Amino acid sequence: MTANTWTAANLPEQSVENQEIGSSIRIPWVLPTISIYHRSFTGLQYQPTNGLGGHLGDKLVFGSDSKGVNFNIVVSPIEHAKVALIGNYLDGIYTGSSPVSLIRTPLRA
């Protein structure tokens, strides 16, 4: 097993960045809202373990980078009746040492 070597002095710095822009406009019977964003974070720690909870290999640091669109359109053609269309699109990836890629590697005892 690998000993825990993280201390307050050598913890990876966690960083989160969020950039977002959006707009909404009111038309008599339609209310469309849309926002576009880019988010990234780094500094998350991960260490693989075996089935008994023992540590395997070194600790890794990873993050994520994503971009996307959120939208919400409400249509009210007659009084007291509304139809809403809500959706989003997300394109994201893990960055750095991805724990997802480690899942596919054989576990060592």
Written account of the structure:
The chain contains one helix and four strands. With 109 residues, the chain is mainly beta. It has a four-stranded antiparallel beta sheet with strand order 1-2-3-4, with no helix packed on it.
How many H/I helices?
1
* Amount of beta strand: over 45%
Largest sheet at a glance? 4 strands, antiparallel
Number of strands: 4
Structural class: mainly beta
Overall 3D form: elongated
Tell me, rounded to a whole number, the average pLDDT.
Answer: 81
Order of adjacent strands in the largest pleated sheet: 1-2-3-4
Low-confidence spans: pLDDT under 50, at least 5 residues? 100-109
From the N-terminal CA to the C-terminal CA, the straight-line distance is 9 Å
Q: Write down the Rg.
A: 22 Å
Reading the helices and strands in chain order gives EEEEH
Share of helix among residues? under 10%
Quickly list its features:
109 residues; mainly beta; four-stranded antiparallel sheet; 1 helix; elongated
